């Protein structure tokens, strides 16, 4: 069975075509600047060569039409006919409290996703557009929704209810939802496989550290707490997001600077984080280079970031009542040798001891703790697309 996985953004989309017999990637690619001048599709077929296709694409339907043409192209395609696509898996950011797992998309599911637009106004609309486009382009082929929020629906109320008047939860659905769920789920399952342990017997802290970042406390394969909240703004210091701050700061700055809601929202989401502290970049590689050159604000940004992640790890060890594995994933988690070293400082008290030599690794599944470390410290590259493909296969086979 072949499964096409699609991840639609507002003006871009990524795709991968899997052969689920061996979970191999037959083709993958990226479409950029949808609805904008200079639309471009970069396609990689089974030979590994990349084809760049520049053609106007006014919407997601046109973009996905070109994706299907590339996948079936006589020279660089991966399959001969669209009939060889058996199912389509979609990354959908927000499902609210409606779904605790992946689902085959029906009219009722689409209506539920429309209702969740107010919770994810930037992400759900393009996700929905991608589903609608594929329903038109490949009628009769089942579509599956895999939700970023679903994995965290196992959290207890004590983890997701905010200390606000309870009617805001009941009436307006204000609660912690958590994100990166597909990544946290994949990484925790893969961790259990690597350790050759039953996931039901493990307490795992997964650290998804990229430009957006979150931690999850996973007990027996279920999320019981996570750092992102009602939106992806809460939690860790990130590339451009402020993470946890005193909420009174918001009204204070708005009053002092005479800012609108949109302006303040833009500051917290796009001008804060390590970018706001360092004044250098939201890219940790740039900040690390600046820090080595003596830029004090770059040094400060890294120190704040590492302390922030370390505090969450220690807190989640308490939530779990102990921990068997701390796992780093995503761009910085997989490749940030220095960041992993700094984050793991002072965690020896809880039995987590990093091995400096083993830690000199990028993007590879491995254990980086010392042989006698009671808590395993690991690097496990995430694979959200494969997780989506697996869920899709499970639901339609």
Automatic annotation (TrEMBL):
Pathway(s) this gene product operates in, as recorded in its UniProt entry: Metabolic intermediate biosynthesis; acetyl-CoA biosynthesis; acetyl-CoA from acetate: step 1/2
Pfam families: Acetate_kinase
PROSITE patterns: ACETATE_KINASE_1, ACETATE_KINASE_2
Catalytic residue list: 148
Broad EC category: transferase
Keyword set, alphabetical order: ATP-binding, Cytoplasm, Kinase, Magnesium, Metal-binding, Nucleotide-binding, Transferase
GO molecular function: kinase activity
Enzyme Commission number(s): 2.7.2.1
Cofactor(s), names only, from the UniProt record: Mg(2+); Mn(2+)
Origin superkingdom: Bacteria
Site (Transition state stabilizer): 180, 241
Alphabetized InterPro entries for the sequence: Ac/propionate_kinase, Aliphatic_acid_kin_short-chain, Aliphatic_acid_kinase_CS, ATPase_NBD
Annotated binding of Mg(2+), by residue: 7, 384
Subcellular location: Cytoplasm
Keyword Transcription listed: no
Binding site for ATP: 14, 208-212, 283-285, 331-335
UniProt remark on cofactor binding: Mg(2+). Can also accept Mn(2+).
Reactions mediated catalytically: acetate + ATP = acetyl phosphate + ADP
Main subcellular location of this protein, as a coarse class: cytoplasm
Entry binding sites for substrate: 91
Family statement: Belongs to the acetokinase family.
Subunit (UniProt): Homodimer.
Function in brief: Catalyzes the formation of acetyl phosphate from acetate and ATP. Can also catalyze the reverse reaction.
Name the UniProt record assigns to this protein: Acetate kinase
UniProt organism field: Fusibacter ferrireducens
Lineage: Bacteria, Bacillati, Bacillota, Clostridia, Eubacteriales
């Amino acid at each position: 069975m072949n499964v096409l996985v699609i991840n639609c953004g507002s003006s871009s989309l990524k795709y991968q075509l899997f052969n689920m017999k061996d979970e191999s990637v037959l083709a993958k690619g990226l479409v950029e600047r949808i609805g904008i001048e200079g639309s471009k599709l970069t396609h990689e077929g089974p030979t590994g060569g990349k084809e760049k296709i520049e053609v106007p694409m006014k919407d997601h339907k046109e973009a996905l039409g070109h994706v299907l043409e590339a996948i079936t192209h006589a020279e660089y395609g991966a399959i001969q006919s669209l009939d060889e696509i058996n199912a389509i898996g979609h990354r959908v950011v927000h499902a609210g409290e409606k779904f605790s797992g992946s689902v085959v998309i029906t009219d009722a599911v689409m209506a539920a996703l429309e209702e969740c637009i107010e919770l994810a106004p930037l992400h759900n609309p393009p996700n929905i557009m991608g589903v609608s486009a594929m329903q038109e382009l490949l009628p009769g082929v089942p579509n599956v929704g895999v939700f970023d929020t679903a994995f965290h629906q196992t959290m207890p109320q004590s983890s997701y209810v905010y200390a606000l008047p309870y009617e805001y939860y009941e009436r307006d659905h204000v609660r912690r939802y958590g994100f990166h769920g597909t990544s946290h789920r994949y990484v925790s399952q893969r961790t259990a496989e690597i350790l050759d342990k039953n996931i039901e017997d493990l307490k795992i802290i997964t650290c998804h550290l990229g430009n957006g970042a979150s931690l999850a406390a996973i007990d027996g394969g279920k999320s019981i707490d996570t750092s992102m909240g009602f939106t992806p703004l809460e939690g860790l210091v990130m590339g451009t997001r402020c993470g946890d701050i005193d909420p009174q700061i918001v009204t204070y700055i708005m009053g002092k600077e005479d800012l609108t809601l949109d302006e303040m929202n833009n500051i917290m989401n796009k001008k804060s984080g390590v970018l706001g502290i360092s004044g250098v970049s939201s890219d940790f590689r740039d900040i690390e280079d600046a820090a080595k050159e003596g830029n004090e604000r770059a040094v400060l940004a890294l120190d704040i970031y590492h302390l922030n992640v370390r505090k969450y790890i220690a807190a989640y060890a308490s939530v779990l009542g102990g921990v068997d594995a701390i796992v780093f994933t995503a761009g910085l988690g997989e490749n940030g040798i220095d960041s992993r070293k700094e984050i793991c400082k002072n965690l020896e008290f809880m039995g987590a001891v990093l091995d400096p030599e083993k830690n000199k690794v990028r993007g590879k599944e491995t254990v980086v703790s010392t042989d006698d470390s009671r808590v395993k410290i690991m690097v496990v590259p995430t694979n959200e697309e494969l997780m989506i493909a697996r869920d899709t296969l499970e639901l339609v086979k």
